[in-house]
Amino acid sequence: MTKSVLIVEDDLLLHKFYKYIFERAGICPIITEDADDVINQLKNEKIHLIIMDINLKNTYLDGQKIDGIRLSRHIKRTAEFSKVPVLLVTAYSLSSRENSILDESLAEGIIVKPIVDYNAFLNTINKLILN
Q1: 91 confidence band (pLDDT: 50, 70, 90)
Q2: Residue/partner pairs of 71-79 with CB below 8 Å, 24 or more apart
Q3: Closest by alpha carbon to 101, among 38, 54, 50?
Q4: How confident is the model at residue 65 (pLDDT cuts 50, 70, 90)?
């Protein structure tokens, strides 16, 4: 069975990166930046993992602007979606904020971009998908 990863990202260049990486790994990437579409995908598709940028510029849920931290928390607090693991992505240094971001978002993990070690990235993805 092919695994599906829902990617919430507003950078078009990263859309191509994720598509390339996941298709080569035999994982089906579903890419969007629309929070309403995220919820519809979760309702209608078998999603094994969500990868979500923290800083979403053009993302709205029910007409309200939302960032990745709040969208992750919304997903994790919705009973029917709460078991889907969320991996947050940020371009900012995490040093002291990693634990507070994870606590606030309820996500399972966070990584910093740019992603330069593709094997480590895919290992992280596979661990989250298999849990």
Answers
A1: confident
A2: 71/8, 71/35, 71/38, 72/105, 72/106, 72/107, 73/104, 73/105, 73/106, 75/38, 75/39, 75/42, 75/50, 76/105, 76/106, 76/107, 77/106
A3: 54
A4: very high
**pLDDT per residue as tens digits for the range 100-121:** 889 999 999 999 888 888 889 9
pTM of the complete model beyond 0.90: yes
Size (the chain), residues: 131
Say if residue 47 is exposed, middle or buried (CB neighbours under 10 Å; 0-12, 13-18, 19+).
buried
Pairing, β 109-112 against β 86-90: parallel
Tokens of 84: 């889907």
Give me 74's structure tokens. 């919304």
